[in-house]
Amino acid sequence: MSSLTSNYHAFKLLAFASAILIAVITACSSEPPTPTPTTQREPTTYSGEESFQNRCAVCHGQQADGTATGPPLVNRLYEIGHHPNFSFHNAVNNGVIAHHWNFGNMPPIPNVDSAEIDAIICHVRDLQRAQSIQAGQPC
Known about the structure:
Elements: H1 3-27, H2 48-55, H3 57-60, H4 85-94, H5 114-130
Helix pairs in contact: 2-5, 4-5
């Protein structure tokens, strides 16, 4: 082996050893890593009435009193004992197979988060309460 080849291999070995030494020194540094700041968003506060008007009223009516395409939610069939709040979450997230009315199946409603559904439920329950329908405790 020529001295040029030998020097080249020695240089590669030295470079490799230096890289390992730098990695070890860096890893063993006594400074703790600086945490990356995370952006925290405030939870969205929804108006149940506004969300209902934007998402539900087209089928269920402005006052949840029904239309030609969807049933009235201000109806004893939807009192809290027969349709608890989770059934509204289920209806929005998964849709509903027609079972009380002849309006056809309700499709799932996309992009509605749980907090917005809760706000809508509160609004519907307020409307029900105003008509003496059992609607549970006010929100």
